[in-house]
Amino acid sequence: MSPKRILVIEDDPEIARLLELELCEAGFEMIWAPNGMQGLVALRERSPDLVILDLGLPDLEGGEIARRAKQAGEIPIIVLTAADAVERKVELLSGGADDYVTKPFHPAELIARIQVQLRHKEGGEVRQVDALLVHLGKRQVHFEEREVRLSPKEFDLLALLASRPGKVFSREEIERHLWGKPLEHSSNVVDVHVANLRAKLREAGAYGYLRTVRGVGYALRKPSE
Length: 225
Prior knowledge:
single chain, 225 residues, alpha/beta, Rossmann fold, Arc Repressor Mutant, subunit A, 5-stranded parallel β-sheet, 8 helices, 44% helix, transcription regulation
């Protein structure tokens, strides 16, 4: 199973380096964005599993980033804040944050909070496109109440595509999600996994769900198309 990707939106490179060491040690992959605009781009293009958001960014207000992130999907957001007032914490949670850590913080506490949020997210989350159901916590797929048995990589691929139905994911995006890095240009491993996934979906009666966009990548159809 590919490592969970944590998007860190933090303008302080020292804190970013510390977080990268701790997150990698804990088995996560870190994506760093030094400002809010780059953070929103990474959120859209890299499909992270969780966001760590510093409120004191130079370009965009942290609360605005949290609101935009929530509009893009149900992604957990942990806010790093220097504010210790109860009113401010309530405001953060009401504005879209799922949790917060007050600076200065101990890395072990942050890792523990990340793990809690990811368990909450995956435990009951089901991604659905019409009759196709992807159960993230159970790592099961059903079509019209019939189970579709997939390999771990096939499941990860389908879960990625189902995270944003209609979005075309490039081969590089898929490689980063499934293996944590781009593969050699000559490799056709993504095409093989796509072909196997498409065949298993068809066997279950799920025709036309997986789309190939020539020269671009692959997508799961939008609901009710």
